[in-house]
Amino acid sequence: MFVAGLLIATAMISGALVMADTLDYVIKQDTYRSTGAVDIVVTAKDAAGQTMFFDESVARNLVQDVVDGNLSNIDGVQPAIRERIGVLNQENGIPYPDAILFGFDTNASLSPLLDENKEPISNGDISRDNVVINDALAGELNAVVGDVIVIMPSEGLPKYVRISHIAYDTGMARWQNEKLVFVNLTYAQLAVALEPHRINAIDISNTGSISNGYKVTDEAVAELQGVLPSSITYDFWTVKADGIEVAEVTSDQVSQIFVIMSSFTIIAGIALIINIFVMLAEERKPEMGISRAIGMQRFDLTHSFLFEGLVYAVAAAMIGALVGLVIALVMFALFSTIFAGGLNFALHFKMSSLVLAGCAGFLITLLTVGVASWRVSKLNIVRAIRDIPEPLLAKSGKKYFVTGIIGIVLGLLMSFSGVQSKQAASLDAGPSLMVLGLSMVLIRYVHPRWPFTVSGLFIIWWVLDPTNFRDILFGETTGGLEMFIITGTLLVIAGVVVVMFNSDMILEGLMKIFGRKRSLLPVFRAAISYPMNKKFRTGLTLFIFALIMFTVTVLAMIASFQRESVDATTQQFSGGFELLGNSIKDLSSEIFSIDVQSLVDEGAIDRYEASVTAPVSILEQGSNESVPYFLLGMSQSMLEDNHFSLAERMDEYGSDEAAWNALAEDQSLAIIDGSVRPQIYGPSFGVVEVGLGDRIDLVMADDTHVNVTIIGIMDQSYNLAVYSSNDFILNQSPIHSWNLFYISTTKNSGWTDQEVAQELEKKFVEYGFRVYVVRDTIQTLMDTISSMMQLMEVFLGMGLIVGISGLGIITIRSVAERRQEIGVMRSIGYQRDMILKTFMLETSFVSLLGIVLGVVLGLLLSYRLWEWGGFSKTAPFVIPWVEILVLIAIAFLITLAATLPPSRSASRLAPAEALRRVD
Amino acid sequence: MDTMTLALVIVLICLAVLGALMVRRRTLTRMAMRNIVRKK
Known about the structure:
The structure holds 2 protein chains of 2 kinds. Chain A is an alpha+beta fold. Chain A has 31 helices and 22 strands. Chain A has 5 domains: 1-35 and 252-391, no CATH class; 40-237, no CATH class; 394-499, no CATH class; 517-572 and 776-919, no CATH class; 584-768, no CATH class. In chain A, a hairpin with a 5-residue loop joins strand 4 (74-89) and strand 5 (95-104). In chain A, helix 7 runs antiparallel to helix 19 (535-564) and helix 19 (535-564) runs antiparallel to helix 26 (774-817). The longest helix of chain A has 45 residues, at 239-283. Chain A is elongated, with a radius of gyration of 34 Å. By secondary structure, chain B is an all-alpha fold. Chain B has one domain. The longest helix of chain B has 22 residues, at 3-24. Chain B is elongated and about 40 Å long. The termini of chain B are far apart. At the A-B interface, helix 9 and helix 10 of A face helix 1 and helix 2 of B.
């Protein structure tokens, strides 16, 4: 039974690792599926860095090299043409602007391409005007076999072709999870390369199977570099190795986030272990006292507890690792219901993860057991035999004084190092430790209530820092995700300290409210006397509840901020333009304005702006490293009437508009997206760090350098780019394209934004024009983030369940411990239901106090996060009361369910039975 | 040495040390085991 209480730590770690394993497996499988046998894709680029066509003979020679055995790490070569095209279903008029034309040779394909009946596609199926499309594209176009579709390559004329098959969803048909049109290589050469014998990609399969060929990627690339003609510059896209790396990095991040988040539960689990041991010791106190009296040493007692704990720890580690599997299973079941479709999660785990979780859990448990054993073995022999309580925080206690001094010194050292390194973690913990130490010293002279209440309140104030006092004192400090755990734990400890040292006052208040009814008075008195007598145990239980409720509340709040921020984020991202269009092919603003005129005339569109974009690199200051970035231009009229909000701007510009206007006049100025700013409490997704007023060095595609001064940083950090004027890009960058359009729709024109978007896609399908409704995109993104947060809540909620079952265990033991008391109470007239009420009231009291404390502290921290973390700019402070009340109700109901059976058995105890002194 | 091997080694060392202690202090071990059986 104790094992159940001890296995939380192991179960949470194991759950986190198994989830990461599964994710790793799923992403890797997806990589294998979407690349098939292909490990490397060789492409060629011209002087300006654009991909270009090259002669097919390059691939044919490679094939010969493989046959001759010159390339030991390569076992397959496939010449191909892959080109982005727009597609229009002639039968129903549905466009799809972003498909890929895949030209290949059926005799030399690396992965199979099968038809609906799983028969291989023959050359005849894709000869001349016949094409095969994949399932994904058929779904987009609502197409069936026999339909005529129009394919629109970026160069050359549109072609009318007939769908001969819809490929079975396997092998090549899954290439990169794209929407594909398969054609004969010769046909592709005529249709898009516009020249025979030209290709733009060579797919390479490494020696080995689909799942292990990537291991020789580096060797294969080296071999290729040796044999490919040097007249062309090649790009080696190591498509499979990249996918594997993504899988590993993602699963690593996921396991880190979940392990970090589970540290709350682990801390709560540690508190539970201590609680269980303190309880065990109290139960055996007279026994232990007698053992000590007849010659057993304190050391021996510790050992005996340790041995007992060892057995529990081994069992807990083994069972916990398996319980982790169940946690992961539940999480993925929820995950699939939230994100329907897409990836299919079947639990996959490595034995090593389970072993690792088991080991980590075992060590944590053993360490806690060791410390707890040492602590509970310290007892006063006489008091133990007489079974009277040890005085808590006795005034005379020299050890409190010494511990206090040690606390102060440690706290000072920590604060000092915090100031030196500007680490927020030490700055939080140092002073907190100091005041707690000081309180321990002070209780020699005053009643413990005062120093501890004051220090508890101080810690809460210090950690939350409502007046930004610390910023003034120490300036900006740094901290990552670990800060959440440190602030959380400190806040909860402080809250518990304040509550516990003022519990008598809280109770007095409660008595005044509930004690009026005479029949309840005896129940009430009995119910609160016990927890208030065993303050250490009550405090720990309170801590467990408060800590987990705290975490869950903060996560619920962050999820709420994300949901609430859709409107403001949409505004920041779109600058007032409802639609954002992106074309694959150069679409000049003249052509755009001619074709879009009908929509303007109908009143659907009231403004549109065309932007030029160009690839660019930002040279990092003080190093020669350059980071690839984007240049995004805006027209004069757009810069003159611009509503994109800025997070920061230089002082000389009176408003955000003024800063944008300045770009129209001065080409040496630029504005950059918000990702370059450091992020608080979360992953920073910027690739470069740039400050206001920095003069950054832009490297254009032809290696010329241009310096611009950053006069503003935007709020939005989704569209990563250096923003400047169209003229600047046209003047400075040799490569640029007119491919971005900002479109503003008219309200109440009879057209919805989605209809306008589809109409535009249809009009410009030959340019591969995709239109995004900004609000919908942001909504999806925010929903995803907030679902992830809720998933995390569930993960931690599972810790809560285990924590609560711990409370059940404690109740069972306290029933056993109080048999005699129950007997006496029953003898003096307490009825059965009064005993039941006493126990239920007792557990409800402790758990509700913990729950309320946790929720209140969680709301306080969320408010600070809202202010600090930039949420206040995008979202109102909305408390999701329903969600929080449901959480409270669930936690409370499980508590009742866990404590009801032992309480009931206590109430059924016959007085005569209970009074007998037997176990 | 990867993390798992390291963790396993530490765990085995802990188990070995405590196991040795348990063998040496048989009476205490017996006491502990009796406690486990009694308070399952």
